[in-house]
């Protein structure tokens, strides 16, 4: 399950809180096949830790760094870089000609915390052991500028190789699914999701039965801005009663709030490498 451009509650206090226990999100319900090569910055993570092996989504930021959700590489589960990998340059998971990279380093946000009703500061950076070369199928993701604002008017998308419904696995050739979603108003998010913070945003399809689903968290929520695609969010958590439920948006880490973390992590690593 995975990622790729695509975007993809009225219960009071306790009921609403119970519905939003952190649950891995990402795959797409009600989406459509993405066009090959249309999301060259999407990557597929295969992570092994002391609890087992699982998959997540991510986005390529540089020739060696990938952005994903911290709970995908939860430090409390002791992820094992040498036994984990990243897949790039793929459209269908059955394609033989994909690009694999092993992982050399994982940096989760220092304030990341898994709570009962939320995942706080759910963002991490993963470094590949070997750099990749950019091509038509492998490109870096653009991040939002300080002045850029995104909201209900923005054209946004989510994507992935995950479940296509609450009980539906992706069939056929495991082709990347994509979906258009709408960013919800912040006051709506706070009303429907008790644990919602200013470092999060929520989004869903305008129709029921469509949206991100259980499977591969960490994939990007992207929006169009001045002619380019910009990553606005990271798939984080959702409703435990099921995915793509009308009135229950998915919750995303708000990338704009973590630009310093991203920049400082990559810059300090480069300086350390230069001094080594």
Compute the average pLDDT.
80
Widest sheet: strand order? 11-12-13-17-16-15
What is the percent of helical residues? 10-25%
Q: Number of helical segments?
A: 3
Shape verdict: globular
Structural class: mainly beta
Can you tell me about this structure?
This protein is mostly beta strands and 276 residues long. 11% of the residues lie in helices and 32% in strands. It is built from three helices and 17 strands. It has helices at residues 13-19, 186-192, 259-275, and strands at residues 28-29, 32-33, 42-49, 52-60, 65-68, 85-88, 99-108, 113-114, 119-120, 124-128, 156-160, 177-183, 200-204, 211-212, 220-225, 228-237, 250-254. The strands form four sheets. Strands 11-12-13-17-16-15 form a six-stranded antiparallel barrel. Strands 3-4-5-10-7-6 form a six-stranded antiparallel beta barrel. A hairpin with a 4-residue loop joins β4 and β5. The radius of gyration is 17 Å and the shape is globular. The N and C termini lie far apart (37 Å).
Question: What topology emerges from the helices and strands here?
Answer:
Layout: H1 13-19, E1 28-29, E2 32-33, E3 42-49, E4 52-60, E5 65-68, E6 85-88, E7 99-108, E8 113-114, E9 119-120, E10 124-128, E11 156-160, E12 177-183, H2 186-192, E13 200-204, E14 211-212, E15 220-225, E16 228-237, E17 250-254, H3 259-275
Antiparallel strand pairs: 1-14, 2-12, 3-4, 3-6, 4-5, 5-10, 6-7, 7-10, 8-9, 11-12, 11-15, 12-13, 13-17, 15-16, 16-17
Provide the descriptors you would attach to this structure in a database record.
single chain, 276 residues, mainly beta, six-stranded antiparallel barrel, 3 helices, 17 strands, disordered N terminus
């Amino acid at each position: 399950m995975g990622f790729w451009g695509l975007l993809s509650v009225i219960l009071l206090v306790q009921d609403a809180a119970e519905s939003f226990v952190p649950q891995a999100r990402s795959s797409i319900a009600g989406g459509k096949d993405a066009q090959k090569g249309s999301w060259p910055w999407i990557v597929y993570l295969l992570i092994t830790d002391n609890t087992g092996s699982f998959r997540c989504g991510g986005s390529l930021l540089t020739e060696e760094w990938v952005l994903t959700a911290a709970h995908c590489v939860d430090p409390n589960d002791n992820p094992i870089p040498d036994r984990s990998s990243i897949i790039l340059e793929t459209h269908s998971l059955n394609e033989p000609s994909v690009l694999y990279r092993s992982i050399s380093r994982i940096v989760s946000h220092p304030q990341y915390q898994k709570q009962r009703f939320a995942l706080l500061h759910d963002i991490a950076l993963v470094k590949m052991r070997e750099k990749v070369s950019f091509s038509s199928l492998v490109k870096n993701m653009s991040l939002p500028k300080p002045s850029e604002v995104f909201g209900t008017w923005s054209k946004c998308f989510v994507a992935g190789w995950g479940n296509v419904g609450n009980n539906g696995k992706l069939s056929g050739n495991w082709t990347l699914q994509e979906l258009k979603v709408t960013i919800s108003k912040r006051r709506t998010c706070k009303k429907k999701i008790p644990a919602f913070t200013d470092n999060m945003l929520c989004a869903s399809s305008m129709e029921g039965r469509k949206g991100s689903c259980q499977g591969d968290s960490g994939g990007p929520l992207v929006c169009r801005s001045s002619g380019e695609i910009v990553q606005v969010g990271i798939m984080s958590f959702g409703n435990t009663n099921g995915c793509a439920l009308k009135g229950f948006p998915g919750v995303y880490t708000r990338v704009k709030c973590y630009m310093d973390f991203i920049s400082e992590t990559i810059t300090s690593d480069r300086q350390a490498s230069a001094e080594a």
